[in-house]
Every structure is written in structure tokens, then in C-alpha cells.
Fold each of these.
Amino acid sequence: MDDRPRSLRAMLAEAKDSSELMIDLAYAAVFFNDPGMATEVGELEERMNDLVQDMREVCVLAVRRPAEAEGMASVLQVISAIEGIANASVDITRLVTHRLRIPDELIADLSNAEEVSHRVWVREGSHMAHPAAQGPGAPGAVRDEGGGDPP
């Protein structure tokens, strides 16, 4: 059963949230040189590709008259922009996945950005490790399955 939202409004909201998360995770992957975060961006991109396709299909099916086409063309432009953000996020993670390095001085400058992502280790058994804690508010949490100290 498909658990993705079916209304265009809900799908646009999900795509916006996902693209924002992807760009944050991509920069965090570079900042922390974390292949796991880079992999998460790739997984989010796969879901985003499906969502973008679904939104395009809804747009095509929603237009019944030529007068509606102009408005829907604008929505399709927004969908393409969201897709571009997702693709750019994957491009950013290639710095990590292809083991390319940027100068440490530039990495330090990332910490001066207005918004910086931080890594949080959650031990199994913590109330934060509960699956309900995952979602838009805590998608980048890394679980410590072994109970030991984070690497």
C-alpha cells in the first residue's frame, strides 16, 4: 500500500520538507566527512524521484481545460526546482562519497553559516530512539545499536 500523500498540496509539502532535509544533510555530510549521511541523502533522492513523478502525474491529470494549463505549468516549474535542489544535494555529497577533500579552512567556514547541523548519538533504549521520534524533526539521528560509545 502506498503510504505517500496523494493530494498535490500534501505532496508539495513533503517534497519541500524532504529537499530542505536533503540539503542540510548534504552539507552536514561534508562538514563531518560522514559517508552515512551522504548515503541517507542518496536514499532520500530515490524517494524524491518517485514523489516528483507522482506530482507530475497529478498535474497532468488535473488539467481539464486550456485555461487551467497556465497555473499548472507554474506548479510544474516548482516541482522541477524542488527536483533540482534534491539533485544538487546529491552533487554536494559526492565530495564525501568520492573521497574528494575541500580545504579545512572552508570546512571551518561552514560552521560560521547561519544554520549548522549537528550530529547526535542516540543510544538504543533511549526515549529518543523510539521510531516515533524519527520524522521531520529528527531524521538525521544516528543510532548506537551496540550500546557502546559513538565512533
Note: Residues 34 and 104 are 15 Å apart (CA to CA).
Amino acid sequence: MTSHFWHRWFKLGGIPKREREQLESEQIVLLEEGLRGSVTLRKFKGHGRRSRYRKSIIIGAVVVTKKRFVAFSLWRPIVNITLEPEHITKLKVTQHLGARLEIAFEAADFMPGCSGSVCISYKTEKAQAIKRLLSKAARS
């Protein structure tokens, strides 16, 4: 699957240089950039925002290293957690129709001062591999 044209032309949905260097030092296991997707907020409160329901289209990236999992929207991390079972088990990772990865979680678990639920959905052919890596981390 090719990356979104905004990523190819303008490098949107990629990983910023500073974060890339840090992630490479942690040994990248899987990297996908320029992914089309969406972020859905339900009953969300925090960071000066309130939203009963809001869905935004994004271009993002997913990185799994030997130490952590990071999901980006444009160049900002939405999820940035270590691969420890107590963190990974708070994520609900599902795969739909082979090429759709969905990551859902309660905002309070990873975003201090926030409440509600967050669902990130990416279109990627590596959805099964990402789900498998995160499931493996949750069991160890």
C-alpha cells in the first residue's frame, strides 16, 4: 500500500527527526508512515476541549520498537507508551478487514487530566503484524 500523497509530497504523517533518532536508538521493529486514518473522541474532556463525539481524518505513523509503541497523527504522538504489560493491556487493539488497525483506549489512562474514550484507526497492510507485536508484549 502506498503512503498518502501528503506524506510523499510534504512529509506529513511522518516521524519528526528528533523522535526518529530516539526511536532508532531503541531498535525499530516495525515502522509505517503516511497512513490514512481517523481519530474518534467520545465524551472527551481535557486540554481545554469538550466533545461529545468528534471524528477527525488524519495522516499518521505507527512505530513499534523493542521498548515502546508510538502512534502519531501528523507529527504529534497520540500514544507513546512502553511495551510493559500494564500499559499494553489498557489498549484494545483490533484488526478489521485485513488492512484496518483500530486502537482504542480510555483517555485518562494515557493523557493526564483527560477523560472519555479515544479510538485511532489506521489503514495499513501491516495491521496484523502490529496487532501480533502488541499482543506478544501484553503476554510477556
Note: The chain has one domain: 5-139.
Amino acid sequence: MTRILADLPDDDIKWLDQLAVEQGKSRASVLREAVAAYRAEKPRDWLDVGFGAWKDRTDIGDAVAWQRRERASWTRPWDADYAEVRAEFPDLFDADDDREHEIHKAWVAENEIAPHGSDMRPGPGSAAVADFQSKPKKKKKQARK
């Protein structure tokens, strides 16, 4: 067994000594039992703590459906899956969301931006590339002698 040196406030030492007297044990014995009890109460894994935490909840109905709805509520008009989420949860969105979605779609089309998940660079025949190629190159200034 390894010996340790620990600093504790005087009030804690007085409390610990009183507890040891009441239990008829040494201060070290009380500390060893306290550490053993603390280790036993400490969860070994954070998943063990959370697993099944909501199993007895009755206020949310079906937990999976509730979770899907919660995630859907974070969908914004410019998200790629807006139309699908809006179709599944129409009560989460309103006319302003639809208007924003249409504005975003028009902006994407106007700027020739690829949909989410695809290569975002403009293609060889796109207006962005043509615009870049049509700009005249600046002449380099000659250094003064």
C-alpha cells in the first residue's frame, strides 16, 4: 500500500477525526473507505450513465419520433434537405421559410453553385470561368531606374 501526503482544511480534519472516533477507526481507515465508496459510485463510462435515461419518459411520446422532430426543427431554408423535412413536418415551417427557400434557390441558380455534397468549383463552361477568362490581364509596372 502506498502512503500519501494530502493537505486538507482544518475543519475537514476535525470532522474526519470526529467521524473516526464515532466509528472506532483510524483517520486513515475512514479515508480508505471514503475513497473506495467514491470509486464504486463513480460511473465507469459516460454511456452507462446516459443509456436508457429517457426510457420512462411519458411526456414525449415515442422517443424516436420526438428526436426526429427535434432534429427537423433545426432545418433552415438554405439546407439541402429543406423540402423533404418540410414535407414531413409542415407545422415547423411557415410562408416566410418558404420565401427564404425560394430566394436561396434563385441565388444558387444565379451563381451557378453546385448542390450540397458535390464539387463546388464552377465547370469549364460556366459563367464564373468565362468571366474570369475574359478579364484583361494587368500589365506589370516597369521598375524605375
Note: Residues 47 and 76 are 31 Å apart (CA to CA).
Amino acid sequence: MSPSLIAVLVVALAGALPAGAQAPPAPAARMPAVQMVTGEQLKAFIDAKRKMVVVDTRTPDEFAQARIAGSVNIPAGFVRALSNRLPRDKGTLLVFYCRGTGCTLSAEAASEAAGMGHANLAIYQAGIPDWLLKRYPVETGIPKAK
């Protein structure tokens, strides 16, 4: 979108709110800070048994092929629908990962979780390729129902 078109839209929409009303904050203003974690940091969190949920945002088929041990599968775009897989405590650390550098699924899912009120969010950007290269613990197959 061109800068001049954006300017026209801003001017046109400026009078769209009733007098005294305020526009809601931009989504980025509502989004809590998301920390980036490395494979080493995530492994240390897991080894220390830190209270958190590790969320694999890839497809169920990819999740079944190999996943970080103990992670749950919530594909990006399904965070609200599968919110029963997330902790009720919105302050619990959620660490999202996907296919690695260049993949945006973990960021999309973290944004969805933030929109639901989760406030302690992290992304393991290097994702499953890095985890596998480091030979950290993985699980395979379809998880058994608990």
C-alpha cells in the first residue's frame, strides 16, 4: 500500500469515531514482549523442570515425525480452538517453535496466544532443525491419549 493511500485512509477514518471515543490500541501495543530463546536455553529450561509448555506449531503429521520431547501440538491458526492444551494460568511460560529460521508459524501462534491473554511468551526461532542437529531428546509417533 502506498504512503499516499495510507495517508488518505487515515484522514478519511479520523472522523469515524464518535466524539470523545478512542480507537483501540494497535495489536502490537497489546502484544506482550516475546522473548527469543536458543536451543541451549530451552534445553536448560527443560532440564531444570521449569514450569512451561513447549508448543509445536507445525502440522500434526510433522509433529508425529519428530518433536521436542514433552511438547504439545497446536498448529498455528488453531490456538483458540485447541486452547484446552494450554495452561489456565496465563502467566505460565509458553515456548513456541516450528520449522526453523524463516518459518513464521511460531510467531503467528504466539500472537494468537497473546490475543487470548497469555503474557509469558517465547519463541525458539531455530526450531526443530536446530534441536535435531544438537541431538537433544525428541519423541516420534502419535502421542497416546492421557
Note: Confidence is low (pLDDT under 50) at residues 1-29.
